[in-house]
């Protein structure tokens, strides 16, 4: 069966510090991968998605970037965090070329920028 | 643009009773998919149910069922015999056929009263 991991689960970082959040998927090959952000009490905002290694689509211009160095690894980064980067970050995967974009989510990372 | 609207930000239901969560969407596509996701306090997004637009039969998963009205672009979720564990945020989502992306509604908080 497929599983998706995210780490760390919780992170507190000062403004101006770098960020690296990691997401890995097991039990499937060539997945679509996604990064979402969810502000407190709000809906999900799609940040990036990837349909293959090195292929990244950015949905919202911002302080963040994403990379996919391996087939089942998706990394969210920032060189300098802003207060507004605080939130809950969710990684998700779906079947590449699937009929529908049915997505499966990881447990998330709670990021607090102080 | 495709949009998903959840007009009720909060609802409550008594344990063992039935509750219906509403969702409407806007699209010009004929081939698409609709989903309900649940986000409990742990904040991991869990897929509850999926509906293919080409299917007239409403999807059912145990205590969860949908009322899909394609002409009205309405996709409501009915939870029967509500349980305390059903308390969560519920998100309606839409995906055009063949798309890699989901469009989410803003979510609705369901409280289950004992």
In CATH's first tier, which class of chain B applies? Mainly Beta
What is the CATH homology-level superfamily of chain B? Immunoglobulins
Tally of helical runs of chain A: 0
Helix amount of chain A: under 10%
CATH architecture of chain A: Sandwich
Compressed to H and E, one letter per element, the order of chain A equals EEEEEEEEEEE
Instruction: Fill in the CATH topology of chain B.
Output: Immunoglobulin-like
Mean pLDDT figure of chain B: 94
Annotated CATH homologous superfamily of chain A: Immunoglobulins
Oligomer: heterodimer
Q: Report the total helices of chain B.
A: 0
Alpha-beta classification of chain A:
mainly beta
The greatest interface here is: A-B, 23 and 23 residues
Using DSSP, what is the number of strands of chain B? 12
User: Which runs of chain B of at least 5 residues are low in confidence (pLDDT < 50)?
Assistant: none
How many domain units of chain B? 1
Task: Characterize this entry briefly.
The complex is a heterodimer of chains A (114) and B (114). Chain A is mostly beta strands and 114 residues long.
